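Fold this sequence, please.
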Amino acid sequence: VGMLIAAGLALAGCNGPSPQPSPTTSLSASASPSTTANASSTATELTPAEKDQQSAEEAVRRYWAVLDELAADSSKSLNMVATVARGQAADQARIELGTLQSQGLKQIGQSVVQSVAATPQDNATYSVVTCVDLTGVNVVDSSGKSAIRPGRPDRQKYTYTVEKAPEGFFVTVDTLKGTPC
């Protein structure tokens, strides 16, 4: 099953997007009709750099979601990888998913991305570290027998390279090297 199982199933998905700050506006007006209402905005606007950092983090969440979906359903096209990854990460994902499918294995359950933190490397490249809970994830053969190696850490930390492109943010490097977190 190659590095996919050895890494503790690096090809698993996430649940849901990262929390987004919600803008709030408060209005105060006096009872007198001659007084103009004063509006004060308490919303915190993100800078373009903060928005990009958040988008890089979300790219990793989307990456896990797509890989999770593909590992669970071999009838889906591996071309879906291109919607979330490019370069080495896309090639590696296709290889690992193809191996999984060719061996008749499929993923049961979904992983949970517990934390994601992006650090800008330059204005278009980010290093993104995530901790993923794989407790609910199994890989089984056609008879339902687990193919997960015994002793796999349930929570693993992965580091990705994410690049900004005109079409959005994409995972470009995935070493599949998880360490306990």
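The helical segments are 2-6, 48-72, 87-102. The CA atoms of residues 66 and 159 lie 17 Å apart.
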